[in-house]
Amino acid sequence: MNGASAAARMSAIVLFGLMAGFFYAFSVTVMGGLDRVAAATAIEAMNGINAAVRNPVFFVTFFGPPFAALAAAALAMIRRDRPVGWMLGAAALVYAIGVIAPTAAVNVPMNEALALTVPAETALKAETIWSDYSARWTWWNTMRGLVCTGCLVLAALSSMPQRLQRVQP
Q: How many domains does the chain have?
């Protein structure tokens, strides 16, 4: 494995790992913590989190994994290391379908709708708004986390020495 190939694989692994950890932390701690405070407070806090997550570092970390995996896949294919190329290509595709697509189709629209809640209305309907939002948002976030963890496993397996990738009889 040459330096560029190793760097591309390591970038994919690190980025998949960062995102898997991000989704994991939200599903098992952040959302549970927000569920334990007053609903109006949870809504305000989540709106703050959703505003803060829109930054260049998160943008690169969120959208970078499939590009790093595709670059590593292309380098593997150039070296005629097809199993590695296919694993990394699969990780990129699965991430796009199982993480980016649900984020755009479900989580972001839910976040945008939550941001439109009017504070006066929120005080009256906060419990209903938050319980509906939290349960659905957390389920989809957990799914994104599981998919991302699968992508991380594929990328990590692609970096194992060839003798370890093959199951011996």
A: 1
Is 14 a member of any domain?
yes
Stated as kind and residue range, the H or E segment containing 20 is helix 3-25
In-domain check, residue 168: no
Q: What is the rounded distance in angstroms from the CA atom of residue 40 to the CA atom of residue 45?
A: 9
| Angstrom distance (rounded) from CA 110 to CA 134 | 10
pLDDT tens track for 6-54: 899 999 999 999 999 999 999 999 999 999 999 999 999 999 999 999 9
Q: What is the pLDDT of residue 117?
A: 84
- Ordered DSSP codes for 58-110: HHHHHHHHHHHHHHHHHHHHHTT-HHHHHHHHHHHHHHIIIIIHHIIIIIHHH
Q: Would you say residue 67 lies in a domain? A: yes
Quote the CA–CA distance of 64 and 13 in Å, as a whole number.
Answer: 11
Q: Note the pLDDT tens digit of each residue in 115-141.
A: 998 766 667 788 999 999 999 999 999
Spatial distance between the Cα atoms of 34 and 151, rounded to a whole number of angstroms: 28
